[in-house]
Write a structure and sequence with these properties.
alpha/beta, two-stranded antiparallel ribbon
Length: 269
């Protein structure tokens, strides 16, 4: 099952709601990189404001630069990150076509990029603007308010739209746990990252994707995940490349509870 979760968890510890101080986040990320689950961990994500401090403390770590809308452009952010191992760049935009052009002009070879689509009802047009480019799509799946969480139908439309265009994607925010659930503190319905993986395995079948996203039974989802063929796993992960999580421990605990991933026996470590 390791292949299904390899590199899935981008480390967003410094972002809300985690808001871990940078020095603690860097130390924790270094521990993640040497733990038994290291293969599941993606880069340490960082915004422009923390880059100067990260340049001093984060050398040797893979870093993902997260640029909010209206922030410094790719070239300036990469200049500020000089000396870091930049694995990729994520940029939010209200104009996907313009951002694609900017990335083409400013992004050097070998740097991955993900473009965060606006949730403005123009998803199909945004995906069309990304189709055929070397960039991934990025979609926001949660936040601090109810309207930050896309409905099952909306998210299924995004996933199927990406699949139909051969576009890989990542997600951000809200995927704190493996299984779809309602947060008792806020009443917000959270998508589960295991749901999204199974929806990704459905390809461009929007109805099947919606069914997978809506499922709230952990045992049923775990059984479906365990029954994926190697080809289905490769297809799901080629589509759904990663998501940002402010806690690496939470998704691992969920997977362990579902019997899908856990530490190897002591004699195998």
């Amino acid at each position: 099952m390791t292949a299904l979760f390899r590199g899935l968890f981008d480390d967003a510890a410094v972002f809300p709601p985690g808001d871990l101080p940078l020095d603690e986040a860097v130390a924790a990320h270094r521990r993640h990189r040497t733990a038994w689950y290291a293969d599941t961990v993606g880069p340490l994500l960082c915004g422009p404001a923390l880059l100067p401090a990260l340049v001093r403390s984060g050398r040797g770590l893979p870093v993902g630069l997260v640029l909010p809308g209206g922030s410094t452009g790719p070239a300036a952010a990469l200049a500020d990150a000089a000396g870091l191992d930049v694995a990729g760049l994520e940029i939010a935009t209200n104009d996907v076509a313009a951002t694609v052009a900017q990335l083409g002009a400013e992004l050097p070879p070998g740097i991955d990029a993900a473009v965060e689509l606006p949730r403005d009802g123009r998803t199909e047009a945004s995906l069309d603007a990304l189709a055929g480019t070397p960039y991934r799509a990025k979609y926001r799946t949660g936040g601090l308010t109810a309207d930050a969480f896309p409905s099952v139908a909306e998210l299924a439309g995004f996933l199927a739209g990406c699949a139909g265009r051969g576009l890989p994607y990542k997600c951000t925010a809200g995927l704190h746990h493996a299984v779809r659930h309602t947060d008792p503190a806020t009443g917000h319905d959270h998508h589960g990252f295991l749901n999204v993986l199974l929806a990704a395995a459905a390809g461009d079948d929007r109805a099947a994707a919606a069914e997978a996203l809506a499922e709230r039974s952990g045992p049923l989802l775990a059984k479906a995940a365990a029954e994926l063929t190697d080809a289905q796993v490769r297809g799901a992960r080629a589509a759904f490349t990663s998501f940002g999580t402010c806690s690496i421990d939470e998704p691992l605990a969920d997977l362990a509870g579902l019997g899908l991933l856990g530490p190897p026996p002591l004699e195998d470590r």
